[in-house]
Structure formats: C-alpha cells, structure tokens
Amino acid sequence: MSLEATTNLEQELNPWLAAETRFDLAAARLGLDDGMRKILSKPARELTVNIPVQLDDGRLQVFTGYRVQHSIARGPAKGGIRFAPDVTLDEVRALASWMTWKCAVVNIPFGGGKGGVICDPAVMSEGELERITRRYTAEIMDFLGPERDVPAPDMNTNEQTMAWIMDTYSMHKRTTVTAVVTGKPLNLGGSRGRPEATGRGCTIVSLQALKKFGLDPASSRVVIQGFGNVGSMAARLMARAGFKIVCIAEVEGAVYNPHGLDIAALLKHRKDSGSILDFPGAENMDAHEALFLDCDVLLPAAKEGVITSENAAKVRAKILCEGANGPTTAVADDILADNNVFVIPDILANAGGVTVSYFEWVQDRQGFFWNEQLVNGRLEEIMVNSFRDVVSYAEKHGVNNRIAAYMLALDRVAFAVKLRGIYA
Description:
Layout: H1 3-12, H2 15-30, H3 34-41, E1 45-54, E2 60-71, E3 77-84, H4 89-105, E4 111-118, H5 126-139, E5 149-153, H6 159-173, H7 197-213, E6 221-225, H8 229-240, E7 244-250, E8 253-256, H9 263-273, E9 283-285, H10 287-290, E10 295-300, E11 317-321, H11 330-338, E12 342-344, H12 346-349, H13 352-366, H14 372-397, H15 401-420
Parallel strand pairs: 3-4, 3-5, 6-7, 6-10, 10-11, 11-12
Antiparallel strand pairs: 1-2, 2-4, 7-8, 8-9
C-alpha cells in the first residue's frame, strides 16, 4: 500500500472526520444557515485530565482521560465512558456528537457526551481499575450531575465501574446521587432490561426492516461481528425471535453453520474454552471474511471502521444493522448505497441502550422503578416509531437512511437551539 493510500485510509478511519462529513451532508440537505452549522458542528466543552494512579507494585503512573460534551441543547449530556489503550480525543469527540444525534433520533431529552481513559484494562487489576475510575471521576466532577452530564458504561467498563463513579460523586456531594450515572447494578438504582437494551433495540429494528421487505425471520440468515454485550444479547434475542444466526465473528476468528448456530450452546462453549472457535457442528473461518458472507442481516457489533472503501463492495447483506458506533466509514456509505444495501444507521440501530438509560435516569429521579415488561414495551414503542420516522424521512427527502437520521436529528436539535435563543 502506498504512503498516499495509507494516509487516505487513516483519514477515512478518523471517526471525527466521518462525523463531520455526514453532518455536512445532512446540514446541506436541510439548508441550515452558516451560524447554526457552526453551533451544531462543534463540541460545547472538552476536558482533558491527567490521572495519577498508584499501581499494585507501588509505581506511580499517569493516565490521560477525556470528557467531551457535544451538546446540551435538549437536556443533560449523555454518553458512555470507555477504557482502552487506543482512545483518542477525536474518537471521543465523534462519539459525543453521535450521542447528540442518537438521542435526538429517538427523541429523548438528552444531549450528547462521551468519555475515555487511555489505559489497558487487560493488564490492570480490579484495584487499579477502581483507583483510576475514582480519580478520573474526581477530576471531571464539575462536568457531572443528573442535570449536567450522565455517564454510562462503554467499551471495557461495566456496572461495577458505574457503581464506583456513583459512589465517588456521592461522597463528594455528601448524599447518595443514583441518577448521576446509568447502567448501574439493580441494587444501586439500575433499571431492569438495561443489559439487554442495545441488543434488543437492534433486534426490534431488524424485524422492522424485514417487515418492510416482506421477509420472514425464520428464513433470514444473520451474521454478527462481535460477541460482547451487544453482539451476544442481539444473537440471543434474534434467535428467540426466529432468526437463523449462521455466523458469529470475534477477534480470534469466526464460526459458521449455514443451518444456524445454537447461541446458548455457543455461549457455554466460549465460557468453557475461552473462545468461540472449534464449536461442535460449525466450521472455523476468518473473522474478516465473515463480513462478506451472503446473508439477509449483517450486524457489526464491535468497533468503529470495520466497513471501509476497501471492503464495502464485498458486503453481500441485504440489511446492515449497525450495533456498534461508527462501524461504517463515510466513504463506504456511497458504495453500500450503490449496491442497494439497506442500512439501519448506528444512531438509530443501537439507540436501545441510551433509551433504557433514559428510563433508568427517570426511575432514579422519581424513586419509582418499573418492571421489565414495562421497560421492554416502552423501548419497543420508541424504536419502532423512530425506525418509521427515519425511513419516511429518507423517502420524503430522497436520501439514504443514514443521512435521513442525521437530518431528523439536526432538525430537532436546531429547533431546540432556536427556541432557546443565544444567551449573550
């Protein structure tokens, strides 16, 4: 690969540049004026902190952390916190902006935020992770609060991480503040249905897409890339809904059975062996090649930038349901459109998580908790209505679903900004 090609691919994989590209396309189609574009395109606040932590062996290490609030026009900033060695400020900016648009697409009263810490949880003890979490929380305290900014779990963070954040914030406030984070354990104000929410949302919109094309779940083949929380939950729920899950891909490889995989047995196999590979009744295959299998639904549920200009033409799925944030680059969008792939964009497809996070925030603030049936019923109502809104917007304006979702979101946020006016 030439230096120029490498540079171009690096730019294509930059999530902030991808977010800007899609923003510009949607803003142009909406006819947003220059001033409103400037307001909506830039993060409202960005914070970079250096986090000193004493490791288990006594050494002191300093980690870099970020918190970005993209918009608070429609409500408190909302977005996860990820721990990973490759976290960048551009990535956090992009994810914060996607949260703004995601909350607007499903019409819940949040803005967008995101956080991240550059560290490698795979080589850190639980004690080290707790200390880095608590110090990071203390460093960004002035950003946080139920009416300001409400974090949630993301890559390599979980309900235990949220419990540490909630406790640290509460200790500083001298009162228990459960609504400062979502994705908490049930015993600390978490919501029923939250762990399954993103995967359930993907299942709901996939069913809506099948209905649109007159397809039957029982004869619909699904390929899922990523078998973490989102991918495994989507696999379980889609299998329960009658889909035929023919392939699961993970970092180490993929397993394939054209007649369908037994998801419960595969989860047990991974727990027992530490890997999805060598699953009885399935064949191993290359993880990258799994993306190009002939299927009805392809659900990427891992990281950003897996479908690019270099491989988008190989995608043979009828429906692409984006369980991950930013799995498709902006350059790849046109290639998928030319090949008539029906894309359910990430800011719609994986919005089930933030929707149930909203429910959790509401329950915490009320001090009144819902049963799982009520949570799931309200989630389905919001996801179905949002799917219909995006598809009808796409048909009305003659654009693809992604640009339609962005247009719908930008319209709602711009309307809120205009109603509020500019404080001077």
